[in-house]
Amino acid sequence: MNNRKKTVYITRKEHFNAAHRLFNPKWTVEENEAFFGKCANKNYHGHNFDLFVTVKGIAYEDSGMVMDLKKLKLVIKENVIDKLDHMNINEDVVFMKDKLASIENIVVAIWEILEPFIEHGKLHCIKLVETDRNYVEYYGE
Amino acid sequence: MNNRKKTVYITRKEHFNAAHRLFNPKWTVEENEAFFGKCANKNYHGHNFDLFVTVKGIAYEDSGMVMDLKKLKLVIKENVIDKLDHMNINEDVVFMKDKLASIENIVVAIWEILEPFIEHGKLHCIKLVETDRNYVEYYGE
Amino acid sequence: MNNRKKTVYITRKEHFNAAHRLFNPKWTVEENEAFFGKCANKNYHGHNFDLFVTVKGIAYEDSGMVMDLKKLKLVIKENVIDKLDHMNINEDVVFMKDKLASIENIVVAIWEILEPFIEHGKLHCIKLVETDRNYVEYYGE
Amino acid sequence: MNNRKKTVYITRKEHFNAAHRLFNPKWTVEENEAFFGKCANKNYHGHNFDLFVTVKGIAYEDSGMVMDLKKLKLVIKENVIDKLDHMNINEDVVFMKDKLASIENIVVAIWEILEPFIEHGKLHCIKLVETDRNYVEYYGE
Amino acid sequence: MNNRKKTVYITRKEHFNAAHRLFNPKWTVEENEAFFGKCANKNYHGHNFDLFVTVKGIAYEDSGMVMDLKKLKLVIKENVIDKLDHMNINEDVVFMKDKLASIENIVVAIWEILEPFIEHGKLHCIKLVETDRNYVEYYGE
Amino acid sequence: MNNRKKTVYITRKEHFNAAHRLFNPKWTVEENEAFFGKCANKNYHGHNFDLFVTVKGIAYEDSGMVMDLKKLKLVIKENVIDKLDHMNINEDVVFMKDKLASIENIVVAIWEILEPFIEHGKLHCIKLVETDRNYVEYYGE
């Protein structure tokens, strides 16, 4: 079998628990509450976030793999999960400083962190699941 | 950060419980049973349906969002869920009148209902999960 | 190892899709709608039901099992699932005739059907999951 | 069928998203961090909590139900969910004031709030799921 | 309604339990262990695999379907599931002979088996979920 | 609040992937195949196993906990998961030597390993989920 011309998409799921709030410092407290509702609660709320990282590429003949998932797991852990898990996204996370802590903004920031580390294959999608009912995806475009 | 040129895909999940049957009135009862099997049962059967609505767009700098999910939730509820939940799709649902009640047809009908309401961003996908083992997606094409 | 004095609880999950409505024929339509709300819809609604059957007993030394799960699966299929799957519980199911089609009543009826078939071990629990948010259990007491 | 002597257990699942931290004010910051680890993070972290409330009782012949789940849902919403959802358990929740915000303590507090409202049947279990890997149950004893 | 020009994507999920190991016979045992880690364990390990098969096409007006899911289910069962379920992928599966038993290689092999059987519509995606944290997708390109 | 007389049940979920087969060495190959069916496949099959460990006890006033879940996690990992994960239960696992590799027997063996390590509270239940459709529980009796 020659899979060298066949593109597969491999996904790794990781997890973090964090606090956040939706708040625009250029708006008044009342404007924030009117727009974001209970998501603007000043003492924060939180979620169990599931993060899905998808890499596309051609499987190596020697390993049968696009990339070593153990390495991908380590890269995600050191650069993303360790900075978000059991943290407050508004207060504790350097890469979200001065950004509104929406999942739309978080998912773009995670893409920008991880992309340089993908040496084999190409980063394809970052998906972030905030609750059983809401999730966001970003394809780098 | 300037996310204004970055397209994110935001998904909201909603839920409804409904009865239906697969039945083509142009066919005889025997033809319907031969083709659709137990799905044609004259007294109906039913499902817990999960509906996923995905909108694509660029996050506003002020809100960090493509669109207000609370508004999207309300639009889906008023125009889709309230018309399907605890209903019989063959008998009670105006927008499925004279259509075969397959998930392929339902998902196209839901797209046509929701698309005019998406003011910020663009409707990207309607996904309808009928059972743990069957689902259908429609991208408006 | 002698497990002959150790009681284990073994559970098998099965599945059926059915229509039903909550309706008491002794009440008026208005009384039914006032009490049961949209669950009384005259054209029915439906669910994907998950059924969990738990048997308790002591594992045989020869087989390492309390009972043969393949036999349990067959008994559940022939006596319960085949009578409920893709059916209307109010109209099509003999063992629910003249009973209100609530999950509380269904679960007791399933216990009474299955108990005589459990030859090794003892029926311990019938659990019926109606939606992601509602389920009922019965322990035969 | 006479189910009046048969006890069934009916469960309702609700959901809330909240921030918390594990912190004992009688200990130093260092003692808290040594014992609770990252769960003591001063700016909080958070979770999607699933709450399961189980009531046991005998189904009424007229309704086929132990209690009206719509009423149970309302009682849980008004007295528990509205006080926890999108809140900070350490800072915003009156019934957790002066208590360590562990799930063991939260589940006992929820039991004490809900028990007086269960008029038909008897409160049987409060289960609180903090993450996919941790949950706690309390049976009132 | 004329859905004849609207493309829907219909997905069927199937399941198999199998043993495998990652091992390249051209490498030494030590090289395999260094690269694949515990996945190279000589006595194998195993998984519950979920397989998702997606077909795209235009729903027939008569049936409301792209293709008969009962037929798709049968084709998947006879040609894929029956050959993998309760098998050892390295030792027992003819279509994986002389291939490294990675999910990247399995998913391509399944595509090649199933594609000729899709008469109505077009095979769109094979997705194989190995664990709660890893999955792979292949789109035939 | 005095929770010292209130018993809570705290559960930790862990995970392992393993191969096994059902086979009684006292029986012939034919007898094993007749009884265990495809579960007796000589080259093994495998599963993603979920293990749930429940400890009951009274929450300490200082910590708000029955026991330190980080310690419980470590005890389970070192004594159970590390010996089962990516292993062949029939060939590689010392504590299952000379025992039939059924989930009924595995769950009893895990109880006997873990019980001596539970210093605060009392081991209450070991639950082992083999597939989405089968699981077993043991309460030490």
Written overview of the protein:
The structure is a homohexamer of 141-residue chains. Chain A has a single domain, classed as Tetrahydropterin Synthase, Chain A. Chain A is elongated. Chain A starts with 6 loop residues before the first strand and ends with a strand. In chain A, strands 3-1-2-4-5 form a five-stranded mixed β-sheet. Helices cover 28% and strands 32% of the residues of chain A. With 141 residues, chain A is α+β, with helices and mostly antiparallel strands. The model of chain A has no long low-confidence stretch (mean pLDDT 95). Chain A binds chain B through residues 22, 24, 26-27, 35-37, 98-105, 107-109, 132-139, 141, and chain B through 1, 3, 6-14, 59, 62-66, 68-70.
Topology:
The structure is a homohexamer of 141-residue chains.
Chain A: E1 7-20, H1 29-36, E2 45-58, H2 69-84, E3 87-88, H3 89-92, H4 103-114, E4 122-131, E5 134-138
Parallel strand pairs in A: 1-3
Antiparallel strand pairs in A: 1-2, 2-4, 4-5
